[in-house]
Amino acid sequence: MYQEKKILFVCLGNICRSPMAEAIFNKLAEDRSLHHVFKCTSAGTAGYHIGELPDYRTRMVCEMNAVTLNHRGRKIGHDDLAEFDLILAMDSSNVRDIIHLLKVKEEHSDKIRLLRSFEPDGEGKEVPDPYYGNLDDFKNVYEMLLKSCGHLLDELTSTN
Ligand code: 4NP
Prior knowledge:
- The chain is 39% helix and 13% strand.
- By secondary structure, it is of the alpha/beta class.
- The protein has a four-stranded parallel beta sheet with strand order 2-1-3-4, sandwiched between helices.
- The protein is globular, with a radius of gyration of 14 Å.
């Protein structure tokens, strides 16, 4: 029996990396019949793409891998700090922006982490922004997220 966990994946625009992370994590959890344990969504630190579907390249890569996206762009908000158990950022500028936007106090800062910190030797590692890149950059992000979300799921299911 696992305790329910609420996870928020965060990037800058909420159309490339974090919706992909959310969808991959949900698929991995579903594959292990653990989808009822996790409530996941994603958000951006910027509001440029509120209400939009994920970037077409994120949609292409997810479709190629039979990963279902179910998200519209949203900006992180103050209530998210209390709402989520884990707030997982793609890069260190996201972490800085989250702390600034949500006015995070020391006692809440533990729940904000880089996603890749769940990988062995992943301390300080980032998921690079593919927005100005090409489809190969999105494929690379997909592989990176698949690995880090797998480690995240392992960790969350071994410590419960
Ligand atoms: P994301 O990528 O943070 O992975 O969603 C970006 C999407 C849009 C922009 C920047 C990064 N933008 O500047 O509009």
